[in-house]
Amino acid sequence: MARSRYDELHDRFDPIKTGKAGTRYERLAAMVLKALNAHDVVIHDMKLRGDSTVPHQIDVTIERDGVDRRILVECKDFDLRGAKVDLDIVRSFRSVIEDTGVDEAIIVTCNGYTQPAETFAKAKGIKLAILRTFEPEDHEGRVQTIVIRMHIRGIVKLDVLQLGFDEASLKRFDTELAAAGLNNACSPNTPLHFVKDGEAVQFNEFLHRRASDDAGDDFEGERKIRVLPDGWSLSVAGGAPIPFEVIDLLYVMADATEISEITSDRIAELILADLSGRDKIIYADQLTKHQVGPDGKVS
Predict the structure, then answer these.
(1) Rounded CA separation 107/128 (Å)
(2) Does this model's pTM top 0.90?
């Protein structure tokens, strides 16, 4: 017996043993509807009696807000036939809707609808949707990969080759470093600052500024520079200013462009679209997450 694409797709995620045509498409639709609204109670193959007391077989039933709102879904897998849902199918479903008095009704198929079917459904308030496989051409116009281009320019290495003091200032500097529990290594959080006229700039930040100013907009590579006091002094842990004579620096300026691509590893399997063109992509991980239980309820 020939199998539709939806039979094959269904059994990749939730294999069953049945030869009944259309069952797998119904179950796929139930899994998709559950994936789109996890709070709904979605049930496959439910028997529902209306005012006539005649039992109706409902492909998919959605119970929303407890059982305060009930939605019936009719599913038609016409993949092998290549046909569209016609007026007779919509009219027949309308009789079930009237008998059961449900709040909402939807027909789902894979190939679309004839014009009379669309006209009748619109007049009777029946929603129409298309649930079909996601095809390569569906990628067109959709974001598949995000390319991030970053221009990076900055100091990647900064070494103090010499920090020069006169003898008295050097002694004060060493003493205050020791008292503050500091050594000669300096991180961005080290309480060592250049101070001038009430302004205080952290040691590393100050020297990075001087190196960046020296490099300008064009230089790239390694260079040595000499920093003179120009009215600045050093302060350890907020202490009194300590004059210095010279600082010799070695810095490396890097200028590069990095390009990275972000591509989702999610696999698109289905598209659920209404006739206005609004669609939702259904991914493999969503189908894996939701399965139809023995009682027909989608978990």
Answers:
(1) 5
(2) no
